[in-house]
Amino acid sequence: MDKIFLKCITWLNPVLARMGVDTMQLGRILRLKLMIDNRRPKGMFARTSNKQMKEGKMQWLTTIMTLVMGVLIALVLVMNNAPYVTHTIYFLIFMVLMALTMISDFTSVLIDVRDHYILLPRPVNDRTIAVSRILHISIYVLRLALLQGLPALILIGFIDGPLAVPLFFVEILQATFLSILLVNMVYLVLMKLASPQGFKDVISYFQIGFSIVIFAGYYLMPKLITRSSLGEISLLEHWWAYLLPPMWISALNELVIHPERATLVTAALAVLGLALPLAGLWFVAKVLAPGFNRKLAVLATSDGNSNSQDNKMQTGRFNLIDKAANLLIKDPVENAGFRITLKLAARSRDFKMKVYPSLAYVPIYFVYFSINGDGTTLSGKFSSLQSGNSYVALIYLCTFVLAAVLTNITMSDKYKSSWVYYALPIGEPGKILSGMYKAVVSFYFFPYCVVIGIVTVAVWGFSAVNDLILAFLVSVIYGMLMALFMVKGLPFSKPVQVKQSGGRVTVSLLVMGVIAVIGYVHYFAMKWELLIWIMIVPLLIINLAMFHYYKKQTWANIELAEM
């Protein structure tokens, strides 16, 4: 397959040469990149070790998963009587999945600087390197695109006849290249406009937001859009639909297979869909590629401190942490644990990538369970939800956020830097742990619960205030149990691989079972408002007692990573 793709790229050599690309260097760079790429684990199996799974089995699993996804989205082609609409919806989903693949797997490839040390001393220009990276990504994504589009290729042969199959294949190529170019153009524009630190932050938040959108769409879209409503969609009635790239791709099918319905607008969109990938490649090579090497070098050597605006934002954030630490904590060791936890968390992109999406998962799960079921409209379900007491479930779901923060607050790829904890004369490491826990609760969990509480009071009224306080105290007890039995580590002091161990599954289930029982008792006690207020007092005492015990942890209670 790689040889076929490389051969196809040579057909573009005249065009690439006019753009200022050295085609001979481009070919050699691509061959080496593909050779290295074939030795790297892909996608969801990237973390699986060779001992656990052989490369052949891993490739088969990836192929099967991609085919299953292709079958599911191919069913969209038979859910509407208008081929133009079904093709547009299909390619909209197709392009979103392709973009997600690039963001999850190949963002690091675009800004990877490891090959920079080999290419930079040699006479390779910016345009050649930038185009080689985009074509490298294109070849990889094109493999998945053809595999994912295979079920639709077969299905379209039955819907529109055998002549539609090669045309649909061209449309798949269009969708793939447009997805690649749009994502990479955004990245390259950001590299032009933003500082190194700003670029990295924007990419991180973009990945987080994109993962949240995909998660929400996966759970909520099937509930909000039924097959009958999908069959009634008429995109052609809306002017904004003509601005969507999937509409341009689908116009080619409408123009060739159904010419009796085609208009001048359809023909113009079809031409636009064919010309845009080449125009995008020209724009990248001529406008965005100059200075690409210099930007990569800055990204490789800069930690973001070179930009005064970034420095001001970082300093302001750290000043807030210092003021909060001095206000909440008087003990110097505990104060230091509080500060180092929050400052390292603010700098760690891996921590943000793992924790921030969980902040959105809780309301998505709640909405999913609330609108689940048949026979009622959305307005009716909302009225029923507002008249009930199901907000208790929303409050207790917040424990997932606390669990996500605690699970990741002790882990880091640079865990060997934690030698400083053991080098200092600290006799009571429990003070560092208590500072860490206070940081997690005060800067992550409590503000999140405040936001959830405001929404709860706005929807269900002030009678929910005592339930919010009680559920918050129960959640903090759950977090303390997690910290005592499952998260035995100092801030960012353990390797990430430890997270994959399953030795504490029984303890985790037991702790969750206890919290679930308390939650059920809370739900049935809600009819007695005074009882809820009374229950707050012993839970507050339990929290203080557990925190005092947690503060007394010794070195023997802490799991130490090998330096």
Mean pLDDT: 75
Query: In what range is the share of β-strand residues?
Result: under 5%
- Assembly type of the chains comes to single chain
Q: What structural class do helix, strand and pairing data support?
A: mainly alpha
Largest sheet: none
Number of E-type strands: 0
Query: How many independent structural domains?
Result: 2
Encode the helix/strand succession as letters. HHHHHHHHHHHHHHHHHHHHHHHH
Task: Count helical runs.
Answer: 24
Low-confidence stretches: 42-55, 498-502
Q: Give the CA-based shape.
A: globular
| Rg calc | 27 Å
The percent of residues in helical segments reads over 70%
End-to-end separation: 44 Å
Describe the structure.
By secondary structure, the protein is mostly helical. It folds into 2 domains: 2-7 and 19-38 and 59-301, no CATH class; 332-557, no CATH class. It contains 24 helices and no strands. The chain has helices spanning 2-10, 13-18, 23-37, 55-74, 83-110, 116-119, 126-160, 164-193, 196-224, 227-231, 245-257, 264-288, 292-301, 308-328, 332-347, 349-371, 378-387, 391-397, 399-409, 419-423, 430-460, 465-485, 505-525, 529-551. The longest helix is centred in the N-terminal third of the chain and has 35 residues, at 126-160. Residues 42-55 and 498-502 have low confidence and may be disordered.
